[in-house]
Amino acid sequence: MGIKIVLADDHKILRDGLRNIIEKNANMSVIGEAENGRQAMELCTKLKPDVVVMDVAMSGLNGIEATRQIVVENADCKVIALSMYSDKRFVSGMLKAGAFGYILKDSASGELIKAIKTVLANQKYVCQQISGIILNELVDSSQENAESGLSMREKEVLQLIAEGKSSKEIGEILFLSSKTVDTHRKNIMDKLELRTLPELTKYAIRSGLTTLDN
């Protein structure tokens, strides 16, 4: 089968285009498609792909948190971020989460193939548009992560809160009781010292957990 690839993006038309680009290469095949981060995690567990091409901004579970969990559970899987965002917070978030590459959606199609081959050689790949100063800042290990005090689960809950989900809806998505979700909400507010939904939403957007334009 050659190189096995999973596509994760919430726009089917884009996934169709990516599939067409990738499968023009005889040794590459798309074995699964996901429309959000949670589906991408499930496909990686089931299909064991070599590469995941991951959108950064998706509802439900964003690409950053999905990447963080995928690389923990699938050490041999390489994640490449494919995003419209060149903002440092998204680039930094994806690379710190464990992504091996980051390219922009307006890059030439050949750059995606180059990125796949590069990461499979166990090398990082960042497209030219966001290299230079930004890349130097990303590799500065002393740079503090503004959201490092939140657990993975709290980040998931915070994204869903910012996207307008109720405690019951969040519980159904994450398989938690409403009471447990409320506990997470309180812990998030305490850690961030924020007390209102607008403040939490603003923080989630600033931290790259959601864009609210999915």
UniProtKB/TrEMBL annotation:
GO molecular function, one term: DNA binding
PROSITE patterns linked: HTH_LUXR_1 (PS00622), HTH_LUXR_2 (PS50043), RESPONSE_REGULATORY (PS50110)
PANTHER family xref list: NITRATE_NITRITE RESPONSE REGULATOR PROTEIN NARP (PTHR43214:SF41), TWO-COMPONENT RESPONSE REGULATOR (PTHR43214)
GO biological process: phosphorelay signal transduction system; regulation of DNA-templated transcription
SMART domains xrefs: HTH_LUXR (SM00421), REC (SM00448)
Protein name: Response regulator transcription factor
UniProt domain HTH luxR-type: residue ranges: 143-208
Superkingdom of origin: Bacteria
4-aspartylphosphate modified-residue sites: 55
All copies of domain Response regulatory, residue ranges: 4-120
Keywords, ordered alphabetically: DNA-binding, Phosphoprotein, Transcription, Transcription regulation
Keyword flag Secreted: no
